[in-house]
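Lecture notes, continued. The same structure-token format from the folding unit now serves as the input rather than the output. Read the line below as a description of shape only.
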């Protein structure tokens, strides 16, 4: 039993695979040392991919369906969460992900409500159409100020919420995500299979990890890589899976790249240019021996994959996308008013042009190709950046971050 008697309810829309779900799990484990923690989820259709050991309560309300079904289910979620809060005598309900935030706010009773915002709202390419308009113009501006506190995972989300959605500045505080530094370092030392090691020995390896989705924007990276290997030997390794898998493979083949697919049954050899390894229980063992970690995201929150690669001591080459990469790699600099168009040698890695601007895409891809080429030819610089990357990640240990979370929750409870 935790030493404190306050009841903390953690709410998320689902417990499937994803960065927010991993953060939710970590919060659940750590906050249970200070409070009585219960997890709540809309439904368990996607399973519980990151079980914490704490009690999980499902509201058992399905998602999807027609617009009428969605409205009806939205109402059911609000009603059932309100009842659950009463039954558990909830003191604070902390919600993760936007759908859960709305349900948390609309079910508010005497308990305190805290929102954890995981990503950019203004730049989220998934917020589109009529529903996107409703979220941006009605729900966020109308509801977010009802929260007792809003915790953002990146400093650059705050001005978005203030200027874009009218959130009161005093409601906001930034607490970055934390990383299991020692655990990741240990896992990264796990040996590759002889076949995998042969690939890494055959040429410098660029590695990227994350879901294969619109947000991660991996397709233009393939173009830069195709140009790179005309100038020097290199391999590109993808760790992760997602709905754009087939599109990315098709694009790579169209570029004349030789593609290995882990699920195809093909034998892993050094003859390929691009390796799609799929989901891996231990992605870190594929990251640590790489020459560079490449991260072409169109938008982020506070990117876990980038931080994990830096813990592995791999030099990071990342888009200067909203939000997170600049905060991690160049914490003493302000976010530029216009997107950068040249490589920026930051304090802890390389910040690069985004690869989602049609008018400048060809030029931006050439910047990527040239930067990767220069870094692959400079062993000393890669070693320097790799050491700085791992040093930087000591700022995001569990202990440092959760002292901030407990402080915020105690402040909210005292009101």
């Amino acid at each position: 039993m935790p030493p404190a008697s306050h009841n903390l309810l953690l709410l998320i829309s689902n417990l499937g695979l994803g960065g927010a779900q991993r953060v939710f799990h970590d919060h659940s484990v750590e906050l249970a040392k200070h409070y009585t923690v219960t997890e709540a989820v809309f439904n368990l259709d996607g399973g519980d991919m990151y079980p914490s050991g704490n009690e999980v309560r499902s509201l058992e309300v399905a998602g999807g369906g027609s617009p009428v079904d969605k409205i009806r289910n939205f109402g059911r979620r609000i009603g059932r969460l309100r009842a659950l809060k009463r039954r558990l005598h909830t003191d604070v309900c902390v919600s993760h992900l936007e759908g859960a935030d709305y349900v948390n706010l609309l079910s508010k009773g005497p308990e305190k409500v805290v929102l954890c915002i995981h990503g950019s709202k203004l730049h989220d390419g998934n917020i589109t159409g009529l529903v996107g308009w409703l979220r941006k113009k009605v729900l966020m501006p109308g509801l977010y100020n009802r929260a007792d506190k809003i915790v953002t995972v990146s400093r650059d989300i705050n001005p978005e919420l203030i200027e874009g959605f009218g959130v009161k500045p005093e409601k906001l505080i930034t607490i970055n995500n934390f990383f299991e530094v020692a655990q990741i370092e240990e896992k990264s030392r796990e040996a590759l299979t002889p076949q995998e090691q042969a690939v890494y020995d055959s040429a410098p390896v660029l590695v990227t990890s994350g879901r294969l989705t619109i947000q991660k924007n991996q397709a233009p990276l393939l173009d830069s890589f195709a140009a790179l290997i005309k100038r020097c030997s290199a391999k590109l390794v993808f760790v992760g899976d997602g709905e754009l898998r087939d599109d990315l493979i098709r694009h790579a083949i169209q570029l004349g790249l030789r593609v290995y697919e882990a699920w195809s049954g093909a034998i892993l050899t050094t003859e390929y240019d691009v390796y799609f390894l799929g989901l891996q229980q231990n992605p870190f063992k594929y990251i640590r021996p790489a020459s560079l970690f490449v991260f072409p995201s169109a938008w982020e929150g506070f990117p876990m994959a980038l931080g994990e690669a830096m813990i592995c001591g791999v030099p990071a080459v990342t888009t200067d996308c909203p939000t997170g990469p600049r905060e991690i790699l160049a914490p003493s600099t302000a976010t530029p008013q216009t997107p950068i168009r040249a490589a920026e040698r930051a304090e802890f890695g390389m910040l690069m042009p985004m690869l989602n601007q049609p008018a400048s895409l060809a030029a931006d891809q050439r910047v990527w190709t040239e930067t990767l080429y220069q870094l692959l030819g400079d062993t000393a610089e890669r070693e320097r950046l790799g050491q700085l990357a791992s040093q930087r990640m000591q700022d995001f240990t569990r202990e440092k971050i959760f002292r901030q979370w407990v402080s915020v929750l105690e402040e909210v409870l005292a009101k």
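Point for the exam: The first strand starts at residue 7 and ends at 12.
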